């Protein structure tokens, strides 16, 4: 009877530890960044692990009011590529943050906690 109670208390302690580690990991995601480019480097977008665009560089030669659509397409492409590239960094960061608290469960994706 007391064994089950101790197991339950241990589990609750692990959950509190997990919550604390996840909060800390989420706070640290703003320091993880990724920059991607499009148009041969003429447009560069930088995003952070909290999935926020934190920088955008546009080559002066691209700024042409007559070619607005191409510039928009290049910006979207650079931003989307940066978001795609940061995803593995987010997963790795969250896995390291919860290492030892959660059992290694194949297929467990903690990246979903960030959405």
What does this structure look like?
The protein has helices at 2-28, 68-97, and strands spanning 33-38, 43-48, 53-58. With 115 residues, it is α+β, with helices and mostly antiparallel strands. The protein has one domain: Ybab, Chain: A (2-Layer Sandwich). Strands 1-2-3 form a 3-stranded antiparallel β-sheet. The model has no long low-confidence stretch (mean pLDDT 83).
Percent in strands: 15-25%
Number of helices: 2
Secondary-structure-based class equals alpha+beta
Widest sheet, order of strands: 1-2-3
CATH level-four homologous superfamily name? Nucleoid-associated protein YbaB-like domain
Main sheet makeup = 3 strands, antiparallel
CATH architecture: 2-Layer Sandwich
SSE string, helix = H, strand = E? Answer: HEEEH
* Radius of gyration from the alpha-carbon trace, in angstroms: 21 Å
- Determine the mean pLDDT: 83
CATH uppermost class: Alpha Beta
- Kindly report how far apart the N and C termini lie: 40 Å
Helix content: 40-55%
Number of strands: 3
Tally the structural domains: 1
Question: Summary?
Answer:
It is found in: Cytoplasm, Nucleoid. This protein has helices spanning 2-28, 68-97, and strands at residues 33-38, 43-48, 53-58.
What is the topological layout?
Elements: H1 2-28, E1 33-38, E2 43-48, E3 53-58, H2 68-97
Antiparallel strand pairs: 1-2, 2-3
